[in-house]
């Protein structure tokens, strides 16, 4: 079985140098009791869920890849806080990335972090505002020489870095589970294939019997920006897919929405 420890050692175009370093023995999230003394090095909402979509119609992203939904903090029990700081509900995220010299991150997001209606920018803004602003380890106070929106860049970068390490399509295909218009799969087949590669059981979600979302659950040692992500079983919701008859439909790329074009002033 592969290691269940995911270290953010190969950040995509980002050194995350501005955020304060955490000690190597920082407490692991969801394994502390009482008040957390250093909320910059241990997440207050301790579990982190890297969540992926499979949109077949309308289709999003490449034919042989899942796409990013988001990176969600969780209170270690399935509950979560949301929209935690309206003063940091940043907009024009694509422009922010370009202004900060992170066109590589933006390019990746434009391919793999897609909105099913074509409004990628609004989708990114929603995910940041609802979930990203709630990470205690990404609070501006956790940074030295902080510049506005540094924590946004770290949030986006961590999300896509984890996504790159969680190739759901490949993991399922390795187990003989591929999109089909006629074949169906059992919950156990899908869960087992992903658990074998990930090291823990992910959450599977379905819509009308169609597999459309996977959530990979982590505890974190250190900051979400550059900590160690430890694969764990979910402690809250367990998903809603049936035991059998799960459809995993091919993407109909003819239904892919045209992305709304933005502009930076």
UniProtKB/TrEMBL annotation:
Pfam families: Ribonuclease_T2 (PF00445). Its EC number is 4.6.1.19. GO terms for biological process: RNA catabolic process. Keywords: Disulfide bond, Endonuclease, Glycoprotein, Hydrolase, Lyase, Nuclease, Signal. It is an enzyme of class 4 (lyase). GO terms for cellular component: extracellular region. Gene3D superfamilies: Ribonuclease T2-like (3.90.730.10). The keyword DNA-binding does not apply. GO terms for molecular function: hydrolase activity; ribonuclease T2 activity; RNA binding. The keyword Nuclease applies. It comes from the Eukaryota. Residues 1-17 form the signal peptide. The active site is at residues 69, 127, 131. InterPro entries: Ribonuclease_T2_eukaryotic, RNase_T2-like, RNase_T2-like_sf, RNase_T2_His_AS_1, RNase_T2_His_AS_2. Belongs to the RNase T2 family. This is ribonuclease T2. It comes from Aureobasidium namibiae CBS 147.97.
């Amino acid at each position: 079985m592969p290691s269940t420890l995911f270290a953010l050692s190969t950040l995509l175009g980002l050194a995350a140098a501005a955020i304060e370093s955490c000690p190597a023995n920082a407490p692991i999230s969801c394994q502390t009791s009482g008040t957390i003394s250093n909320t910059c090095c241990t997440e207050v909402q301790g579990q982190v869920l890297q969540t992926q979509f499979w949109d077949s119609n309308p289709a999003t992203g490449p034919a042989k890849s899942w796409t990013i939904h988001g990176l969600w903090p969780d209170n270690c029990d399935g509950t979560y806080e949301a929209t935690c700081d309206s003063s940091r509900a940043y907009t024009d995220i694509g422009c922010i990335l370009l202004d900060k010299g992170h066109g590589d991150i933006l390019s990746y997001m434009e391919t793999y972090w897609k909105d099913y209606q074509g409004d990628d920018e609004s989708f990114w803004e929603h995910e940041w505002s609802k979930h990203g602003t709630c990470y205690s380890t990404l609070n501006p106070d956790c940074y030295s020489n902080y510049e506005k929106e540094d924590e946004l860049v770290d949030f986006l970068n961590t999300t896509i870095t984890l996504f790159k390490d969680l190739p759901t399509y490949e993991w399922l295909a390795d187990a003989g589970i591929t999109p089909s218009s006629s074949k169906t799969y059992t919950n156990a087949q899908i869960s087992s294939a992903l658990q074998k590669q990930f090291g823990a059981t992910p959450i599977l979600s379905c819509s009308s019997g169609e597999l459309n979302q996977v959530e990979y659950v982590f505890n974190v040692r250190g900051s979400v920006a550059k900590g160690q992500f430890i694969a764990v079983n979910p402690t809250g919701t367990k998903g809603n897919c049936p035991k059998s008859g799960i459809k995993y439909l091919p993407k109909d790329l003819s239904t892919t929405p045209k992305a709304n074009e933005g502009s930076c002033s």
